[in-house]
Design a protein that fits this description.
The complex is a heterodimer of chains A (about 110) and B (about 130).
Chain A: E1 4-7, E2 10-13, E3 19-25, E4 33-38, E5 45-49, E6 53-54, E7 62-67, E8 70-75, E9 85-90, E10 97-98, E11 102-106
Parallel strand pairs in A: 2-11
Antiparallel strand pairs in A: 1-3, 3-8, 4-5, 4-9, 5-6, 7-8, 9-10, 9-11
Chain B: E1 3-7, E2 11-12, E3 18-25, E4 34-42, E5 46-53, E6 62-63, E7 71-76, E8 81-86, E9 95-103, E10 105-107, E11 110-112, E12 117-120, E13 124-128
Parallel strand pairs in B: 2-13
Antiparallel strand pairs in B: 1-3, 3-8, 4-5, 4-9, 5-6, 7-8, 9-12, 9-13, 10-11
Classes of the chains: A mainly beta (about 110), B mainly beta (about 130).
């Protein structure tokens, strides 16, 4: 299985900050990389697909980049509703795998 | 707007069979461009993809190795839903279970799903305990 490694696993930031989360795949996954936001008690929400495409309805302060094995998710200016846990997921080939998650907390 | 609605029991005893259903609204489970997935989340294992099925593959399913010997994902086209069956559960199967749709395209016999899991069910908390 393809291993997905996120860093950092936790992050403290303030409203208005710019934050970046990284995700590394154990092998080349081309651009088959997706990012999700997850809040407790709710279903995950797709933010970015195909490494850099913004899902419809997602605010433009979210952006993604990368290809091959190294990817990043950036939030340009944190809003109060952005404090959540973020996961990367590879969809290059089954079995799909997820990163461990990055918990974004208010400083 | 596509919605997925999950149903099924939340409490099981060890060795029983877990059965969950995901009803599809606003799309067809027989769509040429969708695949239907089950995922679970637990504190010990994080998010774990369990498997998927899709019409274009003639309902041939892909499964995670960890559950391959005891899982079945199948559609019910008459009810426009798909289901998860997991046999011989243990406390290790305690988790929140989600169904999810992914969309893509097919070229000949090959299908590609680059657009992520874009619709999720509400989640079902399943506890396995004697």
């Amino acid at each position: 299985d393809i291993q997905m490694t996120q860093s950092p696993l936790s992050l403290s930031a303030s409203v208005g900050d710019r934050v970046t989360i990284t995700c590394r795949a154990s092998q080349n996954i081309r651009n088959y990389l997706n990012w999700y936001q997850h809040k407790a008690g709710k279903a995950p929400e797709l933010l970015i697909y195909a490494a850099s495409s913004l899902q419809s309805g997602v605010p433009s302060r979210f952006s993604g980049s990368g290809s091959g094995t190294d990817f990043t998710l950036t939030v340009s200016s944190l809003q109060p509703e952005d404090f959540a846990t973020y996961y990367c997921q590879q969809s290059d080939s089954p079995p799909y795998t997820f990163g461990q998650g990055t918990k974004l907390e208010i400083k | 707007q596509v919605q997925l609605q999950q149903s099924g029991p939340g409490l099981l005893k060890p060795s029983q069979t877990l059965s969950l259903t995901c009803a599809v609204y606003g799309d067809s489970v027989s769509s040429n461009s969708a695949a239907w997935n089950w995922i679970r989340q637990s504190p010990s294992r994080g998010f774990e993809w369990l498997g998927r099925t899709n019409y274009r593959s003639k309902w041939k399913s892909d499964y995670a190795v960890s559950v391959k010997s005891r899982i079945n994902i199948k559609p019910d086209t008459s009810k426009n839903h798909f289901s998860l069956q997991l046999d011989s559960v243990t406390p290790e199967d305690t988790a929140v279970y989600y169904c999810a749709r992914e969309v893509g395209y097919c070229s000949g016999d090959n299908c590609y799903f680059p657009y992520g899991l874009n619709v999720w069910g509400q989640g079902t908390t399943v506890t396995v305990s004697s």
